[in-house]
Amino acid sequence: MNTVTTFDATAARGRCRQFRRRILDISQNVTALHVAPAFSCLETVDLIYHGLMRWDNGHSPDTFIMSKGHGCMAQYVILESLGILGADDLAKYCTTNGRLGAHPDYGVPGIAASTGSLGHGLAMAVGMAYAEKVRSSDGKVYAVLSDGEVQEGSTWEAFMMGATLGVTNLVAFIDNNDFQSLGRTSDTHPSFYPLVDKFVAFGWEAIELNGHDAEALFKAVMSREGKKPMVVVCKTVKGRGVSYMENVPIWHYRAPNKEEYQKAIAELSEVSS
Predict the structure, then answer these.
(1) Which of 122, 193, 195, 218 is surrounded by the most beta carbons within 10 Å?
(2) pTM (two decimals)
């Protein structure tokens, strides 16, 4: 089993640039998909698959839960790059003959749980991490949550239970792009912040970092104390990587038309921290 000790940030930026292009390509086959939510968490999801999870011939003892189900395009294109999903799967995204929907479905290769109903993913991740602990496995569980679902009461119940059960093998990442569909969280729900203080109060090791700086995220997880479950609040930009999509609410839902697609491809560059 390969144990990850280093992370190539330059290679990661190159991968994420190609992943963003792949998502844009797919967007030309459907009328709507969640481009901006995928772009905000892409560096985090890439880090989990290429920097944190251990792999041996395409298999890993570790588990990833995309609790932020509407960000699944980030997961789909990475699974394709790993050979777990095929190009035909992505070509048939959201079609009657395909098996990939707008949210992840359990049973699809590489998908550990059906998600999309916000507030469910962390509870499943806590349960999976506890199962690994009970059977004395070294399996680790990683989860990506949206900041919107952190407003769900079930999410806070899961945070409380995770600390109670001592699932130190669990690391959760919050994609804190400060948007909920059509509005900024900091405007509509100012008492939502500060997040780190709340997580610490619930018994977690917590830190806030630039969510597009994968190297910083990697170092933080690798240097964690490990006495508690960990949560990383990732400050991100919704639609990161395409200027006209960044922090513009409509790109939560819609796919770019041909002209917008060409503009996005032309300006797409590697996202730096």
Answers:
(1) 122
(2) 0.95
Buried b (16+ CB within 10 A) or exposed e, 180-199: beeeebeeeeeebeebbebb
Task: Give the separation between CA 44 and CA 66, rounded to whole angstroms.
Answer: 11
Residue for token pair 């880090």: 47
Q: Is the pLDDT at 158 greater than 60, yes or no?
A: yes
Tokens (6 digits) for 30: 């459907």
Q: Which tokens sit at 153?
A: 């009461």
Rounded to whole angstroms, the Cα distance separating 3 from 240 reads 30
Instruction: Give the whole-angstrom CA distance, residue 156 versus residue 158.
Output: 5
Q: What amino acid occupies position 180?
A: Q
Q: How far apart are CA 75 and CA 223, in angstroms?
A: 25
Question: β-strand 170-176 against 63-66: which pairing, if any?
Answer: unpaired
Residue 230 CB partners (closer than 8 Å, separation 6+): 170, 171, 172, 204, 205, 206, 207, 221, 224
pLDDT tens by residue, 49-79: 999 999 998 899 999 999 999 999 999 999 9
